[in-house]
Amino acid sequence: MLPELPALSWILLLLAAALAGLAKTALPGAATLAVALCAAILPARESTGLMLLLLMTGDLLAVWSYRRDADLAMLRRLVPSVITGVATGALLLQLASDTAIRRAIGVILLILIAVTLLQRHRCAAPGAPAAPAGHDTASSRPARLLYGTLAGLTTMVANAGGPVTSMYFLACRYPVKAFLGTTAWFFFAVNLVKLPFSIAIGLVNPTTLAVAAAGAPMVVLAALAGRSLADRMNQRVFEPIVIALTILSALPLLR
């Protein structure tokens, strides 16, 4: 069932698998690089199905690694707005072109990044009161409605929910492990919902299953390495990396 590909293509696919694992346990946003690598090697449908399987492999390790760190109460509160966003995205796909929607999402993401950075700058100003993790204005109902809806919409339309959730959990001021754990459980649930639909429309098929099985060991190794890295990562290092990777994730949507 494995496709006949040049050796370089297999190397790049294994690199994509490693980035998928690393993204799940240490560096949210690295999955965007994995998606780009995979899309450059395989046709669109096979690439989409393969990345879903690789990311779900990483999801399993991430939710186990951070099973005590996720803010599950926050995730439960996000469910209604995420479902609203998914429905809105499905409607928009019927009314507007993919290009117009992706560009609009890219602009919105860059605005969210700017707003988040401005908020954090104000909080860091001398004399500003410190907000406890997960309990500042970002966790208010209007913020949950905005970010949750946008996360559902971007996931449905452009598989770009990662940048939105990264900015939201960053705005919630979660420490490293709580950030990674909450992100892991969020995307585990989202990808689990997407799996049956991907099977039904042929994105997940014997070929993508075979390639995913070949790449799974690399996902596992990278995820374990990422877990070790997260144990040593300082908050001041983690947050700029997340912001940089989020910006890199948003820019391709502007094309």
Automatic annotation (TrEMBL):
<protein>
    <recommendedName>
        <fullName>Probable membrane transporter protein</fullName>
    </recommendedName>
</protein>
<keyword id="KW-1133">Transmembrane helix</keyword>
<dbReference type="InterPro" id="IPR052017">
    <property type="entry name" value="TSUP"/>
</dbReference>
<keyword id="KW-1003">Cell membrane</keyword>
<keyword id="KW-0472">Membrane</keyword>
<feature type="transmembrane region" description="Helical">
    <location>
        <begin position="199"/>
        <end position="225"/>
    </location>
</feature>
<feature type="transmembrane region" description="Helical">
    <location>
        <begin position="78"/>
        <end position="95"/>
    </location>
</feature>
<comment type="similarity">
    <text>Belongs to the 4-toluene sulfonate uptake permease (TSUP) (TC 2.A.102) family.</text>
</comment>
<feature type="transmembrane region" description="Helical">
    <location>
        <begin position="101"/>
        <end position="118"/>
    </location>
</feature>
<feature type="transmembrane region" description="Helical">
    <location>
        <begin position="237"/>
        <end position="254"/>
    </location>
</feature>
<keyword id="KW-0813">Transport</keyword>
<dbReference type="InterPro" id="IPR002781">
    <property type="entry name" value="TM_pro_TauE-like"/>
</dbReference>
<dbReference type="Pfam" id="PF01925">
    <property type="entry name" value="TauE"/>
</dbReference>
<feature type="transmembrane region" description="Helical">
    <location>
        <begin position="48"/>
        <end position="66"/>
    </location>
</feature>
<feature type="transmembrane region" description="Helical">
    <location>
        <begin position="174"/>
        <end position="193"/>
    </location>
</feature>
<keyword id="KW-0812">Transmembrane</keyword>
